[in-house]
Specification:
single chain; alpha/beta; six-stranded mixed sheet; 8 helices
């Protein structure tokens, strides 16, 4: 079993506006940069081999955290929300009526118009985890909420219907262990990136 440490990128303007970002390449906002500047990756993970999603909000987060990213990893790019990207839930309900709620109730099999499903995301995260396990190299990744949720689903069997089995704090490292079959095991969730006085 090989350790995988996952960190979600810092906030963007679309995060603040509750817009679906998906693979739209939004940079960190000024507030997001300030937020990440207050984070510190614990020493235990500094020596991991770090990769990043290719999207700028993840690569910039890694740079601010002074992580030595060896490559961009396409498998950990955010879910493709297709035609829904850039919209809030309220706006989507105005466009599609109750269709969004119907699809959301499908959990792993939710598929936005012209997008991919969480199951698709989970499959590519599992393939990446298998590669990490085969290499036996402790790995860290700066990625996205959808990727960390996929890892949690692989570790717990969560169908993504209802609340996740673990409440996740996004100013944190989430540590898993990758198995050779592409499944995950939870090691430790919510390892704070904040200074002790702020955590």
């Amino acid at each position: 079993m090989t350790p995988i440490a996952l960190i979600r990128h810092g906030p963007t303007d679309w995060n603040a506006e509750h817009r679906l970002q998906g693979q739209t390449d939004r940079p960190l906002s000024d507030e997001g940069r300030a937020t990440v500047s207050g984070w510190t990756v614990p020493d235990a993970y500094q020596a991991f081999e770090w990769v990043s999603s290719p999207l700028s909000r993840a690569t910039e987060t890694a740079q601010i955290l002074s992580l030595n990213v060896v490559r961009h990893e396409p498998a950990i790019i955010e879910m493709d929300w297709g035609a829904w990207e850039g919209y809030t839930r309220t706006e989507l309900d105005e466009i599609y009526g109750n269709e969004v709620s119907k699809r959301a109730s499908m959990g792993l099999d939710l598929r936005p118009h012209e997008g991919e499903s969480p199951r698709d995301v989970r499959d590519r995260v599992a393939a990446w985890a298998k590669d990490v396990a085969d290499a036996e190299t402790p790995t860290g990744a700066v990625c996205h909420q959808g990727i960390i949720r996929a890892a949690l689903s692989l570790a717990t069997g969560w169908s993504m219907v209802g609340k996740p089995p673990v409440k996740m704090d996004w100013a944190s490292v989430h540590l898993f262990r990758a198995h050779a079959d592409g499944t995950f095991e939870i090691d430790e969730m919510n390892v704070s990136l904040l200074p002790e006085d702020d955590a």
